[in-house]
Amino acid sequence: MLSQSFKPCELPPSAQELRAEVRDFLAEALREYSRADRAYSWMGFDARFTRQLAARGWIGMTWPAQYGGGGRTAFERYVVVEELLACGAPVLAHWTADRQSGPLILKVGTEEQKQRFLPAICRGESYFCIGMSEPDSGSDLAATRTRADRVPGGWRVNGAKLWTTNAHRCHWMIALVRTTPGAEKHQGLSQVIIDLHAQGVTIRPIRDLAGESHFNEVVFDDVFVPDDQLVGTEGNGWQQVMSELAFERSGPERYLSSIALLAELIRAVGRHPGERVRVAVGRMVAQIVVLRQMSLSIAGLLERGQDPLVEAACVKDLGTGLEQLIPELAHALTDLPPSLQTDGDYQRVLAYVTQVAPSFSLRGGTREIIRGIIARGLGLR
User: Fold this and answer.
1) Whether residue 272 is found in the same domain as residue 214
2) CATH number of the domain to which 337 belongs
3) What is the pLDDT of residue 3?
């Protein structure tokens, strides 16, 4: 039963001891960051900060030392990620590579790929993005039309990927492509590592409601990809992508994206708020506590080498629902309007989170897709 996967999970002493070290580091490294700056959470980009984390050994923490990793536990990595998110650290530069691209290469990549890509990620020098969504396909990844055709020495890739976070700053993309034309919808798909500076790659930023350009459209026009940049098994792309998405959906970023706003709300209402505010804030905190325990239990599954696809979908669905609720409640509980044209941290954070909150239930799979995964896991479809 699915409920048995969410057993209470305690952090080991080594992870608890690490927390204090991480907090001391962040207090110094982020002392110039305002509370409004920290609202960007894991969408904040700072290459210098990423290199500082790398110097501490906090990128690729669970990977083997032979590939530049720290050989530490999933629980220790969980503590580092939790602290980074709780204080709004700018981690976007290495985020995708550390969270899912590196683990995918470690799991299904060749030895040459591991030696080539993983140490650079651990040093904070190599940034990855993911190429899954496409124009006119919504969240249906199996509708992938970007194709990779066999040519001497590799593949020629043609097509486009959409909503590609951070592509304009990244070095590499792991893209889902169709390598067998005419195959059944979920068959004939593969993953390839594409050099984003290669000839034929065009990256077009997409500006969002907050005025940012985190998202991009990436177009491939006869882009050559060498044979040795096929990831895993040709034709096994669908299964690999599903496994990769479990890494993306299960972490604390799926319920802590709005945590800066909750903290500012508590500051704004003061030490003695009315009962309505106390009840609303108490309920939000209670939900965070539950989601944290669910997410932590998935870290336990990963530590045991399991593949928590359905469990991760549950955390993602419930977590993004809470993240989107927090700005709505903040609006209802205070008389301060959201505004980016003020010195007030609360109003600036409220404005930013309100603008980006609609994307929370899109990134990593729409709510409908996520609930379909859960339904299949429960045997309901």
Assistant:
1) no
2) 1.20.140.10
3) 56
